[in-house]
Amino acid sequence: MAANITDIKEFEGEWVWCLHCERASHVSEWTPPECPFEDCDGGLFDGWSYSELRAQAHPEWPQTPVRGKLYPQYG
Ligand SMILES: [Zn+2]
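^ thats the input. predicted complex w/ zinc ion below
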């Protein structure tokens, strides 16, 4: 399974995929560590490495995601 971003520093410069709202955002927006979208209450453990999730399960996702776009985990 893809790693979540509990260690923010380790994921510096990367994109984050939120388990709650399934949207992409940049890791720099996760400080303090919570989902940057106001209508989402996703926290640190909901932020997953976009690149790892893409590599492991979603090769059809773009290398660089569109910020705020929905990338459904299933379907
Ligand atoms: Zn979210």
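Residues 18, 20-21, 23, 35, 37, 40, 42 surround zinc ion (CB under 6 Å).
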